[in-house]
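Before the break, one more example. Copy the sequence into your notebook; we will annotate it together after we see the structure.
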Amino acid sequence: MQIGIVGKPNVGKSTFFAAATLANVEIAPYPFTTIKPNRGIGYVRRECPEKYFGVKCNPNNAQCMDGVRFIPVELLDVAGLVPDAWQGKGLGNAFLDDLRQADALIHVVDASGSTDQDGNPVPVGTRDPVDDVLFLEKEIAMWIKSILDRNFQKTAKKIHLEGLKVESVLQERLSGLGVSLADVTAAMRLSGVFGDPINWTDNDLLSLSDAIRRISKPTLIAANKVDIAPEENVKRLMAMKDRIVIPCAAEYELALRKAARASLIDYIPGSREFRIKSSTLNERQRQALERIAHFLRQRSTGVQDAIEKTAFELLQLVAVFPVEDENKLTNHDGQVLPDAVLIKKGSGPQDLAYRIHTEIGKNYVTAINARTKKPVGHDYQLADGDVIKIVVRK
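Here is what the structure looks like once it is written out:
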């Protein structure tokens, strides 16, 4: 799974990315600090089944802290987006191409209103952050439309004359963006754009493109810089319909994670508290931590919440733990509950088998639920926290 971190320049995208991944990226208060995309690993939290089974897990791909499993997800921090990026302005072409395979987007917005439309610094409260949300949504919709627009009349005539299935033709054109046939079909229902495409207007194509954006690139709003944002700005963002908005203070989260890595504090990402463990803090560090502690009494920094809401609410994923021995809960190397797999809610055990390996999926026979020790049927829908053994044909 890949989540794109997007937004206009100078809103804190790279700070958000660094806070989530502790990757070394350039962070500066001016536009286009990020030129090439930064890739890193963030994490989502889920309760580890070790407590239920009374065992100690041995994770293969993540940490487990106090019974909480941190499951890796790929994050992509891309160049800032400016108006008319879909036409190539700024670093628009690179930005949009980098997002082709993203499953979802986190749109980092400057809730403080202290950057103009191009990302240049302005006084706090000058810019309406709601405008930034709408502008980015329009840019991505226009990007999708620009792809559909290429020789569209010629394509529409071919569909009309040969009786081709509209959804299949459009999906083939958008397949490079990771758009599925189901996405196009759902977008047509959402936009109300049906019938013979030879009769579609430019507005019809834009409506359809925006619906494809909403379905194929679902987006969460990270209202960043809430520590300095006017309360009215935050309220306006939170009131936007059909959007998930998470207030964030990415700079605070980055400071906490760096302090924890330096063994100055004990801090679990996403927590609303931390414990100072070092006696060597200087006065400046102590004051900074006191300021962050005061902030955390009101809300979390939001970075971890934003990633988790994207995974579990926007993308509707569940965490499943595959094992090879349902009694010992181990893999072939004897590791206990070694991995967690994020998979779409509603998926079945054979879908999980294919996720593990294509050959396992092809040779799938049945699956065993380690909690009940009973086989589950082909129509069983995997639940969050399931521990599953896949039985394959020998």
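The chain has three domains: 2-126+218-252+295-310, 141-215, 318-392. The two ends are 31 Å apart (CA to CA). Try to locate both features in your own notes.
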